[in-house]
Amino acid sequence: MDDYKVFRDLATHPYSLRSLRMLGSALAIIKNRYSQFSTSDLDTDLWEFPSREHFTESKDTDIPVNRRWTDYMKIIADSNPDHGDESQSMWRLAGNDHLDVIVVTKYIKLLQLSSPSSPSPPSHRTQQPIIVGTGANTIVIDPEVKMTLLPIQYENSWFAAVAYADCIHVYNSDNEGAMPPEMQKWLSSTFPTRQIRCCALTEASEQKDSGLFMLLAMRMLVSGRAPTRRNDREFVRYLRAKTFIELLTGNLNASDQDVETLHEAFDKDTSCYFDDAFVSHHSSPCGPDSSSTADTGTVAQMPPESVRSTEDQPVPFDMCVTSWGTSTGSGSYSRRLPSQVVSSRSNANAQDNATEITVPNSRNTEGRSRNRSATPPSMPQECKNILQLLSEAVVFHRSSRLTGSSDLATLWSFIRNDFSNGFKSEFYRRYNGVLFYEKMLGLHSDREIATLLELPLGNARDLQEVKKLQSRFKVWHEICQLRNSWGKGRYTLLCAVSDGSSLERASSEQKESKLSRLKSRLEDEEDPLSGWINSARELCCSLIEDRFPRDRLMIDNYHLKASWTLYEPEFAAYTSMNPNATIEIERMAA
Fold it and tell me: Which stretches does the entry tag as region Disordered (predicted)?
């Protein structure tokens, strides 16, 4: 709908006394809904409707932030925040990604607790996030409340909806000015007697920013203002930084001083303890007069050339910002190791692509030569697949809590939407799928299923979808049963298969063949798979039993190392529950 044409037609319409009273009622309603709009600055000497150019988008919606705000957000985006500082959800927000349900829920809580920014704000209530398509959304409309705000997510887009007594306003952040058909259908069935009107918030914007515009629209509506249509690049960047800092400080009126406090806290808390994970606790001080034997050495891992040649690589919270320094006079990069280890790069030019160096403990050149030529076995791809699954699971665990006690409806919504809320963990998708399968086994009728999932009775389509989803995860249940005696440790076997989606789509014969081969490998004493799974067992149990330590572990940093050259002895350290796990690499024979 062309707004300009609508209001030009209103201005040129021939009015009767009755129609003028109608227009007055409409203006009174509009004034109540947008109480902060003032007509005092309008030109009252108008006798014809102005041209389109007269109604340019207002630039008065400024974001009061400066570069220090965006700098701090970038620090977090380029870091690996641990539990207790920033959740994975906040990390995604800082990293110019989609806003997930956790972030939206936190912001709504701030909005509810904050003092009104206008003298007489309209009475309102804000619902928890609504995910269209889950079938488990509960809407509570209080007739005494003039406006109910509904943050709605459909697929990866967010919409700000406002329920009034006679209509529903839906604000979206694309250029269509329309809603997806499924969302339109849901709103029509939820509010059958109310007119549904849709308005585009911006002329064009990226989908990942839709959550930002939705939250801003809700905040402006609550304060009696009409949502802005600004979407220039600087505005969006500042809006993201402002939203991030507000959530971080728990204050919708965060100041520059709050940002400076965050910078100071970050600088103070940064540490270098992770270096210890690459150095044996049994290493002896090395020096030109050392009397140590030539039979031992300490291998200090170096980053790949692609990492060593750039200054903008992500820096985890638990590593010094200066942990990668330039070696004096060599032009190459070396890791700042504890004082008892001396790095040697005398052949740096010849060994430009080396990914490890051996630090000898004596001046014996023969021993030094032997040690440099020997390397530990590379980490097998199966180990890397296991670590990738665990790494994603740890990130997810630190930002969410789903356990075996979660109800059936929650599990169904979770796995059905395949982490469309912003989470990404293949391990947890499989785990929650197994829980869903096992809970469904205890149900004996369609009525019981429909009741627990809050589905309409007699809805065969939804019941068919539920049962189809249950059958999809049967294979994972059967895999876990291969180690049923392990109790909850049996879920570690969910890491034993890399391509889960292919397995779920496979035929019954292919699944049986895969299950048989996996069983044979686990029973083969010469196959290392059983040892790898057993090594990861305690870590998996701590995740699903919700007793994962607050301290950072090596697995927290695996995603930063995944592209490096890794060695088999490191696997045990990455699956260790010890925050100070070490990697001890014995010198190998020439």
Answer: 284-315, 327-380
Based on the fold, state whether residues 81 and 154 are members of the same structural domain.
Answer: yes
> Are 482 and 443 part of one and the same domain?
yes
Q: Rounded distance, CA 193 to CA 521, Å?
A: 62
User: Which residue blocks in 398-459 are alpha helix, DSSP H?
Assistant: 408-416, 426-441, 446-452
148 and 98 in a common domain: yes
Tell how far CA 523 is from the center of its chain.
38
The token duo for 8 is 């030009």
pTM for this model (two decimals): 0.48
CA separation for the pair 56, 351 (Å, rounded)? 62
To the nearest 10 degrees (0 to 180), the angle between helices 508-523 and 529-544 is 100
Residue 47 domain boundaries: 3-55
What is the rounded average pLDDT for all residues in the chain? 74
Q: What is the CA radius of gyration of the chain?
A: 30
DSSP 487: G
Q: How confident is the model at residue 401 (pLDDT cuts 50, 70, 90)?
A: low
Between CA 307 and CA 364 the distance in angstroms is 32
556 lies in some domain: no
* Most confident by average pLDDT, 287-301, 317-331, 553-567: 553-567
Instruction: Collapse the DSSP code of 301 into the 3-class scheme (helix H, G, I; strand E, B; otherwise coil) and give the result.
Output: strand
Q: What own/partner pairs with CB < 8 Å and gap ≥ 24 does 50-56 have? A: 52/4, 55/4
Most confident range, picked from 16-30, 38-52, 141-155: 16-30
Q: Is residue 193 part of a domain?
A: yes
CA–CA distances in Å: residue 185 to residues 164, 182, 237 = 18, 5, 34
H or E segment to which residue 299 belongs: strand 297-301
Same domain (yes/no): 84, 22: no
pLDDT-based confidence at residue 37 (cuts at 50, 70, 90): confident
- Assign residue 132 the CATH number of its domain: 3.40.395.10
Q: Are strands 147-154 and 324-326 parallel, antiparallel or unpaired?
A: unpaired
* Contacts of 130 by beta carbon, 8 Å cutoff, 6+ apart: 137, 139, 150, 151, 152, 153
Residue 569 lies in a domain: no
The C-alpha atoms of residue 440 and residue 435 are separated, in whole angstroms, by 9
Contact indicator for 583, 573 with CB cutoff of 8 Å: yes
Cα–Cα distance, 139 to 179 (Å, whole number): 19
Q: Name the domain count of the chain.
A: 3
Distance CA 360, CA 372 (A): 9
pLDDT at 353: 36
In a domain, 139, yes or no: yes
| Angle ∠(357,361,362) on CA atoms, nearest 5 | 115
Structure tokens at 68: 């220090």
Per-residue model confidence as pLDDT tens digits over 172-182: 876 555 678 88
Long-range contacts at 58-65 (CB < 8 A, ≥ 24 apart): 58/228, 59/230, 61/228, 61/230, 61/235, 63/235, 63/238, 63/239, 63/241, 63/242, 64/242, 65/238, 65/241, 65/242, 65/245
